[in-house]
Amino acid sequence: MSSETRLTPRQARSIKTVEAILDAAKKILAEKSYEGLNTNAIAEVASVNISTLYRYFPNKNVII
After folding, report:
1. pLDDT of residue 8
2. DSSP, residue by residue, the chain
3. Burial letters for 5-22: b for 16+ Cβ neighbours within 10 Å, e otherwise?
4. Quick check: 23 and 30 in contact, CB under 8 A?
5. 6 lies in a domain?
6. Per-residue pLDDT tens for 5-42?
7. What's the pLDDT score for residue 53?
8. Nearest to 24 by CA among 45, 2, 9
9. Does any domain span residue 27?
10. Is residue 8 part of a domain?
């Protein structure tokens, strides 16, 4: 996990949430490239609330 993350997940559910966010970013990058990547799209594909995404990552560059 990057030292730039806001919160380090410790519980299994939180770890799965962070994995879902990272997987969603990979999927969007593969389909739409960097220009199509934004935090709202990542949250939507990961099926998490945008505030949950920001709990772990301050911006999309840290996700990447």
Report:
1. 86
2. --TT-SS---SHHHHHHHHHHHHHHHHHHHHHTGGG--HHHHHHHHT--HHHHHHH-SSHHHH-
3. eeeebeeeeeeebbebbb
4. no
5. no
6. 678 888 999 999 999 999 999 999 999 999 989 999 99
7. 97
8. 45
9. yes
10. no
52 within some domain? yes
Structural domain for 50, as ranges = 15-63
Q: CATH number, domain at 52?
A: 1.10.10.60
As a residue count, the chain comes to: 64
Our count of domains for the chain comes to 1
Write down the pLDDT at residue 7.
Answer: 81
What is the Cα–Cα distance from 20 to 42, expressed in whole angstroms?
9
Task: Specify whether the CB–CB gap between 4 and 45 falls below 8 A.
Answer: no
